[in-house]
Amino acid sequence: MEPFLLSGERRLSRAQMLENAARAATGFDALGIGPDDSIAYMLRNDFPALEVLNAANHIGALAVPMNWHFGRREAGHVLRDCAAKALVVHEDLLPQIPLQDFPDLKVLVVPTPPELRAAYRAPAEPATVPATAAEWHGWVAGHAPWTAPPPPARGSMIYTSGTTGVPKGVRRKPADAATAQASLALLARGFGVVPGMRTVMTGPLYHSATVSYARGASQQADCFVLMPRFDAEELLALIERHRLGRMHMVPTMFVRLLRLPDAVKRKYDLSSLEFVVHGAAPCPPEVKRAMIDWWGPVIHEYYGSTEASIVTVASSDDWLKHPGTVGRPDPERRFAIVGEDGRVLPPGETGEIFVGLEGLSDFTYNRMDEKRAEIDRDGMVTNGDVGFLNGDGYLFLCDRKRDMIISGGVNIYPAEIEAEIMTHPAIADCAVFGIPDDEFGEAIAAAICVQAGHDLSAKDLSAYLAERMARYKLPRVIDLHDSLPREDSGKIFKQRLRAPYWEKAGRQI
Fold first, then answer.
1. Where's the AMP-dependent synthetase/ligase domain (predicted)?
2. Domains in the chain, please, with CATH?
């Protein structure tokens, strides 16, 4: 029988993974970690990440995934804010942790396995491990498995990406049995997480969607492959080799897949695919259509947030009938489009999206209860997204409210302009954002990456867009970049692109 967990040449059975998690739970308990305490981890896609998630559940603790792109300042903020009592970290990521600031933190070091070391070109020489730290595998083996009944699950405390201000930890209340069951049903509807699934983890295990997907898959999958790092052709090879049927992806992965030579695309048998879900970032329409043409009607899209979980799901058929939609709101949840004046808007009118928490445990922002109150409306919450419902009840997203550009009193949605820019065959990536303008308050700027082998000037792109968009939506500034600051989860750090312009103007973003 094929092992449950696979990564590179390494294999681990489900029984062994669950036993390791139970042993780790005993170890964490011995460290004085209990319900509502925090266990942080900074791990790439590796078996111990799943063991930590499951171990935290055994003792009612919060698992706190840390983005392994974080530098010392960012990592320090999360460790301090969540009051972590333990940190599980890959050895090569140790230099990114300001350990001197946390003398009481129990550090458990995971040796970086060969496939991860190769994928991320980790230094050949191991990092210096503090004398007070323990090696993860030996530490786990030194404890007996946890046998006590688990308290109500608290899940993970995910820190928002912090595109404005510092990252905020989304801290949920314990889930009762009914809520836990509703969450499983939501994972099945939205992510296609079902018993017996054969899946692959393509994205990093620090993002809210991938952590939720991994939690469900670790309990229900028959085969669970961890990709060290996304590679388009390697994904096709894994699908064929292991007859994979389900996965979570982001649009940038689709773009890389579509760029493969036709001969490579035809080389692999993808007939096992049955439910491929994507989200986390907008998907250009031509990319979505091309993936459906290639992989068939197995492509699903969801819209959601760390705070509100999965809000809508669109099948391939939904999207082809309503191009651009992210689906209908979940019928089990309250949903409203709200205008600037607080009025609930009818179909066709654009406003801020609010959604109820039915089927979810309530949450607050860790140490920031006032921020939680700011986003609440009669028990519904918003993360600042703007959109509208069409006459058939399908949701269309316009943009994030905080990303919206107000130029001369006119609301301009960067996502619309980005989608048009991405239709140019020479564009590899783009981001549109507002920059200061003395006359209009804000002007439109675009940062673009040009595909290798193409020659495209800012003037060329301006002329292309002028034939397709109203003049007031045309970027006034177009800057060429080698790459854009984008997370592996697909989200782009627009703050980093905007900041130099606003700092130069002496104004706040």
1. 5-356
2. 5-156 (3.40.50.980), 188-401 (3.40.50.12780), 410-505 (3.30.300.30)
